[in-house]
């Protein structure tokens, strides 16, 4: 009888203990994303702008290529020693450029194949699989806003869509490549208001599921279907269709893995954005989708916290954003006026939907509007 009573008490207490532990982990995750946001502010205080997605001028002028915004923020997170290691890799003004994507140089690996605790949320057990010697992994992603475009390193216009070049420097979020676009993100350019604009959000890291795994976790894998998804030729609802039960991908979807497509992984490289950036299109804890080529796709914010994700805004505040935040018009393909080479402020409908006509300006909802730095929306944190 005594043993039975003890068993009942343990059964009653265990959920409470687990909840308390998760609350503590969530608080740590909140504090870490807060520190990233403050580092972004301190960077702006020094340089009068926010850092580029990659190839920031203090790297590119030293012939250091593809180092992402995490490296720009290092001196402002008490990580000057690592930053100095990166700068020491410079070949000078005439030597061959050094890339963070380099897979054969030990000196580069010292700063790219490492594990930085300040980029890891303890609620994500997947990061426990990664060790020093693996590529950089991060649970904190920069916002590209709501404009999902090409992922890749080909800086050219796509036939018939002259506004479309490389996704991360045509995005209208806080993370852009201002060297190519010529449009630096500053407090002055954030016309939607810093308290209403997303800067960073959480993202669950890759769980090392092999490519083609049916029923893989849709938060920790890129989902690939038979058709191109989350690009201008498809509607966002298609990617939502990858969401099955119990965090598993639905039938017809499987994990996609190549050298640059794992969520949260290879975060040091500025070739693609899966490892270090996300879109405020599908709501938090939605699938992240790509194609079997890996060129098109979009990462969604995600976490293992119950019901949403921690999000840092441009005023330095951190809020927990619910996965039920208002979204709409996912039956609409986005398009922009022909000949526009930089991201315009408002998308227009490329097809007719349930409530939007062809050519009509529209919005994907509050979550999308919070991701835009200059869309003219009045969206506020719910």
Structure description:
- There is one protein chain.
- The chain has 382 residues and is of the alpha/beta class.
- It has one domain.
- Helix content is 23%, strand content 11%.
- It contains nine helices and 13 strands.
- The protein has a five-stranded mixed β-sheet with strand order 7-3-4-10-11, with helices on one face.
- A hairpin with a 6-residue loop joins strand 8 and strand 9 (297-298).
- The longest helix is centred in the first third of the chain and has 46 residues, at 2-47.
- The protein is globular and about 70 Å long.
- Mean pLDDT is 80; it is low at 150-169 and 338-344.
What are the salient characteristics of this protein?
alpha/beta; five-stranded mixed β-sheet; 11% strand; single chain; 9 helices; 382 residues; 13 strands; four-stranded mixed β-sheet
